[in-house]
Design goal:
Blueprint lengths: L6 E5 L2 H9 L7 E7 L2 E10 L10 E6 L2 E6 L9 H11 L7 E8 L2 E10 L3 H7 L3 E7 L24 E5 L2 H13 L8 H10 L2 H14 L9 E6 L4 E6 L27 H6 L3 H17 L3 H20 L8 H5 L1 H19 L4
């Protein structure tokens, strides 16, 4: 018997619907209502995402009773499980990551199909986990590469805050972040002063676990954007949270197969390059990768988790009229992910020998 997934109903008045449709790129919310667990409550709703806003199946951001949720269409992912699988993997390896669950979404009585509900990274995220956070920044685009130059170019950034969106904290926290970026880009390589600075301002163990997670799952876009950065209150150090992991497990963000060796074992950003210049940090990172390959990033661990997620939504995907990919492609995704894990393990095992 198939697992049951939640069914949510959105109710948007015609006038507000037209407001949304007039400008799909608007960041403004419109009033609506949502029936959830048998109770209808007022909400605020808007479209979310980048290029996906022009897709026939769009993603939504919903504010309800002081909480924010993201409802991802996962339109480009033929499995519809890559975000969920990735975030659960991060949680298993000790990296803070959003909770997720699949659901069926309806709009004014019309089925929108299978969606992924993703917890927002905000003040409530930290309260729920008992984490003190004094500042929070979203890495909104590839300028959040911890470098001095704009992503993919040789142009210097107009501001070292470029690429970030501040969600929690004040002006001093913003200045502290730009100072952090400036400091990791100045001074000689492998200097004792830079090492002390990194140890004082960055939770290095958490960062290296995040790096390993991004590398193992193969998120090419996850190193210079698609993350949240927060200041951990007890230690006053930066910690990092993954976000937007649809392009993983052997497919890119458009769903195209990209192979298992696309992402280098050290990832791609300035902070990682500076950090791994120190032999002790490289050794720590190598040990983390080796441990994850032995315990967490295995066929025996990953594939059953992928199959369980796939199985839970399979009957609903079959009836989903809005899906982009054929059902036969969807049905082959657990095996696709299995092959990726097998090949990725071989590649990383080889790469860490010379790390």
């Amino acid at each position: 018997m198939p697992a049951h997934i939640p069914v949510y109903h959105l109710w948007i008045p015609e006038e507000q619907w037209r407001r949304l449709e007039r400008n799909v790129w608007s960041e403004r919310f419109v009033p609506a209502a949502m029936t959830k667990h048998g109770r209808t409550v007022p909400i605020q709703i808007r479209y979310r995402g980048g290029h996906t806003r022009e897709y026939p199946k769009r993603s939504y951001e919903i504010a309800i009773s002081g909480k924010t949720y993201h409802y991802n269409a996962e339109y480009d992912d033929p499995s519809l499980i890559r975000n969920a699988l990735s975030f659960r993997f991060f949680q298993r390896i000790g990296v803070d990551a959003p909770d997720t669950r699949h659901c069926l979404l309806y709009l004014n009585g019309r089925s929108l199909g299978v969606y992924l509900e993703i917890e927002s990274v905000d003040r409530r995220f930290f309260r729920k986990r008992g984490i003190g956070a004094t500042a929070l920044f979203y890495a909104a685009n590839d300028n959040a590469n911890f470098g001095l130059r704009s992503g993919g170019t040789k142009r210097r950034k107009a501001s070292l805050f470029s690429g970030y969106q501040q969600m929690v904290g004040g002006e001093p926290d913003r200045h502290a972040l730009t100072g952090f970026v400036r400091r990791i880009n100045t001074g000689p390589d492998r200097s004792a002063s830079l090492r002390r600075f990194l140890q004082s301002r960055l939770d290095i163990d958490r960062y290296l676990h995040w790096l390993a997670g991004a590398v193992l799952t193969g998120n090419y876009d996850g190193f210079d954007q698609n993350y949240a950065l927060y200041v951990h209150e007890p230690t006053r150090k930066y910690r990092i949270i993954p976000w937007d992991y649809e392009g993983t497990w052997g497919r890119n963000c458009y769903g195209k197969p990209c192979g298992s060796n696309l992402v280098d074992v050290t990832g791609y950003n300035r902070l990682t390059r500076r950090l791994l210049q120190y032999p002790s940090f490289r050794k720590r990172y190598k040990n983390i990768l080796a441990r994850l390959l032995k315990k967490h990033f295995t066929v025996q661990t990953i594939v059953p988790a992928a199959e369980a997620l796939h199985r839970s939504i399979r009957p609903y995907v079959y009836r989903d009229p809005s899906r982009k990919w054929s059902f036969s492609v969807f049905d082959g995704e657990p095996q696709f992910i299995r092959r990726y894990v097998e090949e990725r393990r071989e590649h990383i095992s080889e790469a860490i020998r010379t790390l």
